Amino acid sequence: MATSGAAQANPMQAECSTTGAYGYVYSDWYGSDTRIDFSMTFTDMLADGHHVRARLVTTDVNNGPWHYNYGGNNTSVDVNSYATNSSGIFNWGIQVARYEGDTYLNSCTNWIV
Q1: Which of the listed residues 25, 38, 48, 49 has the most CB atoms within 10 Å of its CB?
Q2: What is the pLDDT of residue 90?
């Protein structure tokens, strides 16, 4: 069976780090499919009392929900989830941020395009 490039699995990983936080997202993304299944891991890297958040970001749909890590320094959170868009998903990545309560402190974003 022959398949085109858009129909073949294309495993990719986006990762980024910012002061106090690191994360990555991995997917067997199929190009312009309407669904992306992903695995995400993000880590609190500082004993500073702040917490870390991470989410899947896409350029063509609303960004995914924030996932939280309140565990403190050297703790990680693993997320397995998916996002959908009936028009297709074309570019995606990860956003990792550090917060104090609901006050944004810093973040990073990395894209797979």
Answers
A1: 25
A2: 84
Angle, alpha carbons 62-105-66 (nearest 5°)? 30
pTM (two decimals): 0.87
Residue 49 DSSP label: S
pLDDT tens-digit profile of 88-99? 888 899 999 999
CB 29 within 8 A of CB 112: yes
3-state secondary structure 4-43: CHHHCCEEEEEEEEECCEEEEEEEEECCCCCEEEEEEEEE
State the Cα–Cα distance between residues 86 and 104, nearest whole angstrom: 31
Given a contact cutoff of 8 angstroms between Cβ atoms, the answer to whether 110 and 41 are in contact is: no
- Mean pLDDT score across all residues of the chain: 89
Q: What are the strands of the beta sheet with 92-100, ordered from one edge?
A: 67-69, 51-58, 92-100, 103-112
Q: Is the pLDDT of residue 60 over 80?
A: no
Sequence-distant (6+) residues with CB within 8 A of 46 are 19, 20, 73
